[in-house]
Amino acid sequence: MTFIDTHAHIYDPLFDADREAMLDKAASQLISQIWMPNCARETIPGLMALSEQYPDRCLPMMGLHPSYVGDTMEEELLAVEDQLNRNAFMAVGEIGLDFYWDMTYVDQQFTALRTQLQWASNLKLPVSIHVRSGHDRNAFAEAADVIEQLALPDLTGIFHCFVGNLDEARRAIDLGFKLGIGGVVTFKNGGLDKVLPHVSLEHLVLETDSPYLAPVPYRGKRNEPAYLRLIAQRVADLQGISVDDVARHTTANALSLLPALHANLLPE
């Protein structure tokens, strides 16, 4: 039984003091892989250093996070494109739309999203999509609209940190995406208790989004990949199955996004 943390910012400075111990703890909890999303140019060195140090455990994505879209968007996208052309990545991410804090660069967020979705399609890579609503706008719905409008061939990936309702879950699944389930599933008013009992396990993957969104009982503290087991347990409880089943299926679901890289690692 192993798990994959499909979204964790383990290059974050919050791990500088104990990164190796954090990774050892994750291994002790049977976390076999940690997928690392990029945010912007400033996060590339740390991301790449970890992927080089732990090539079989820490897998890098490359992308421009919507919260980092601003006046320097063109330079940021050029840096992402250069990395995608020069190095091997397991996904394009994290990309998407964030309306929560500031709407100043919303038009540029859409440009960055469309551009990076096209790159992913061209490279036949999955995407990790960040959607955070705010200012009376639904980021999930608007990102899904973009995906439908582009109609790119074989586009797939994960709606990271999925917190939507059942209709949104079904729409994501119909688009060919997995739902990334993280610490919010353990929150009393997180809402996923009304969704996950009605969604087949084949559509789910697990994530921590470390160092953010730690699950109960660590809510409000630094998150880390070892806590993925708590998320898996809550999913198991909501689905009425064992943690072993959650581990087996979500690991297979994650690896199915990367058939060329990991077909030989799919559990029997």
From TrEMBL:
Keywords: Hydrolase, Metal-binding. The keyword Metal-binding applies. PROSITE patterns: TATD_3. One of its GO terms (molecular function) is hydrolase activity. Pfam families: TatD_DNase. Coiled coil: none annotated. Belongs to the metallo-dependent hydrolases superfamily. TatD-type hydrolase family. This is TatD family hydrolase.
